[in-house]
Structure formats: structure tokens, C-alpha cells
Design brief:
The protein is α+β, with helices and mostly antiparallel strands and 222 residues long. The chain contains 8 helices and 4 strands, in the order H-H-E-H-H-H-E-H-E-H-H-E. Strands 1-2-4-3 form a 4-stranded antiparallel beta sheet. The chain binds flavin mononucleotide.
Length: 222
């Protein structure tokens, strides 16, 4: 029998891109982090190294990233041009849906640039979780562990009415972020999660991204 409350949380979670300043209560945040700790990982290595940044430190970090905006320093590559076929189509659909929701025209390059820059003020979220990881081999296994951790974290937040958004864009400034947070060079930054109570009135939060039917991604063998 399906646990309906689980299904509801899973299917209602979505990315929010405008938050209220209201902080998440410390006790609630600890519960969420305890939940996320139950994430499975390769050989139970539990390789997540999570830094939660709020308040003045978050402002300092945002400023440092914006200052370094022309000098990205990612630990891992990210390039839209690597997407092809249906993947590239989905990526374009996602961009189109986003800009249409906020009323930014295709040819409005300045408007688009401004919208992209909102990533670096964390969409005004009161908290940001930085997901660091140790480096093992080609890092694929450890990155999958971090991805799993992130989904546990997002769902646990969603179950408590707290909104979130995972952000690879911010991780493009890994060196700057390590410097501000005093994190050692051997910890690599995969992505971050901004979170807090969503501003339900914001147009950008009306976005609902669809999903393709399962036969586009699942093959049954008997
Ligand atoms: C690892 C990861 C990184 C992401 N990075 C960004 C980002 O930097 N900026 C952004 O606006 N959205 C980012 N997203 C959000 C995706 O665009 C979003 O998850 C996708 O469009 C599906 O929408 P949904 O989360 O509302 O279901 C990211 C999502 C994931 C899982």
C-alpha cells in the first residue's frame, strides 16, 4: 500500500526561486539534517560534508561570489553544450518556462542576465547548504552519494513546508566559497541548496516543470 503522505511530499516538491526572510527554526533544521543522515551511500561511506550558511556569512559569501563573477573556479565541469537530443530539448524547455513565468522576453539579454545573477544572492533564501565531498577516483560514485543526500534533504524540507532549490550555478565559484568558509582544498563542491519559506506570491514560484512519461526513461526486460 502506498504511503500517501510520502507520495504527496515527493510529487509536490519543486524548486522555489524567491524566499521570505523568515529563518528556519534551529530545531527543525536539525531534524531535517538527522533525516538526511539516513541517506544510503556506497559502502556506507557517508561522504557528505555539509556547510549551512546564514546571516552575515551568507551576505559576505554572496558579495565574494559576485566580485568573482568573471572568474569562475568550478571543481567539476558544467556546459550546456554537452547536452544533446532530448536532453538538450528539455534543458531549453526549462529555460523557456522559467523566463516566460517571469515575463522576460527571449531577446532581453540584460533581463536574462539579471535573472541568472539571482542565483548568487540565493534567491533571497535565509539559508544555503553547501554540499562538499571528498575526491575518490573519478568522483562519479561519491557524486551519486551526494545527489542522494540532496534528495533526502529536499524531501525532508518539503515535508515541513520548507522550500528549496538545488544550484549548480553557485558551485562554479568553488575556490571563492572555500576561501570564505575556510574549507580545505581537498573538499570538492558539487552543488548547493538554498532553502527557506517560499514566497508564494512571487511569479517565479508559479513554475511547474513537467516530466516525461516513464516509457521515455524505463525499459522493462523479462
Ligand atoms: C543538481 C541540480 C542543480 C540545479 N542547479 C540550478 C541552478 O543553478 N539554478 C536554478 O535556477 N535551478 C537549478 N536547478 C533546478 C532545476 O532547474 C529543477 O530541478 C528542474 O527544472 C525541475 O524542476 P523542479 O525542481 O521544480 O521539479 C538544479 C537542479 C538540480 C537537481
Amino acid at each position: 500500500m502506498v504511503n500517501h503522505s510520502f507520495q504527496e511530499v515527493l510529487r509536490s516538491r519543486r524548486s522555489f526561486r524567491q524566499f521570505l526572510p523568515t529563518p528556519v527554526e534551529k530545531k527543525v533544521l536539525h531534524e531535517v539534517l538527522e533525516d538526511a543522515q539516513y541517506t544510503p551511500s556506497n559502502c556506507n561511506t557517508q561522504p557528505w560534508d555539509v556547510h549551512i550558511v546564514s546571516g552575515a556569512k551568507k551576505e559576505e559569501l554572496s558579495k565574494a561570489i559576485l566580485q568573482a563573477i568573471e572568474k569562475p573556479s568550478p571543481d567539476f565541469t558544467f556546459d550546456f553544450d554537452h547536452y544533446y537530443g532530448r536532453y538538450a530539448e528539455r534543458q531549453k524547455e526549462q529555460g523557456k518556462t522559467h523566463y516566460e513565468a517571469v515575463g522576460i522576453a527571449r531577446e532581453d539579454h540584460e533581463g536574462r542576465q539579471k535573472e541568472i545573477l539571482r542565483n548568487f544572492t540565493f534567491f533571497d533564501a535565509p539559508h544555503v547548504a553547501f554540499l562538499f565531498m571528498p575526491s575518490f577516483g573519478d568522483n562519479v560514485r561519491v557524486a551519486s552519494d551526494i545527489g542522494m543526500y540532496a534528495q533526502s534533504f529536499l524531501l525532508s524540507l518539503a515535508a515541513r513546508g520548507i522550500g528549496s532549490i538545488p544550484q549548480t550555478s553557485v558551485a562554479m565559484y568553488a575556490d571563492t566559497i572555500r576561501q570564505v568558509l575556510g574549507v580545505s582544498d581537498d573538499m570538492k563542491l558539487l552543488f548547493v541548496v538554498s532553502f527557506g519559506y517560499p514566497d508564494k506570491e512571487a511569479k517565479v514560484n508559479s513554475i511547474r516543470m513537467g516530466r516525461d512519461p516513464i516509457d521515455s526513461s524505463v525499459t522493462f526486460h523479462e
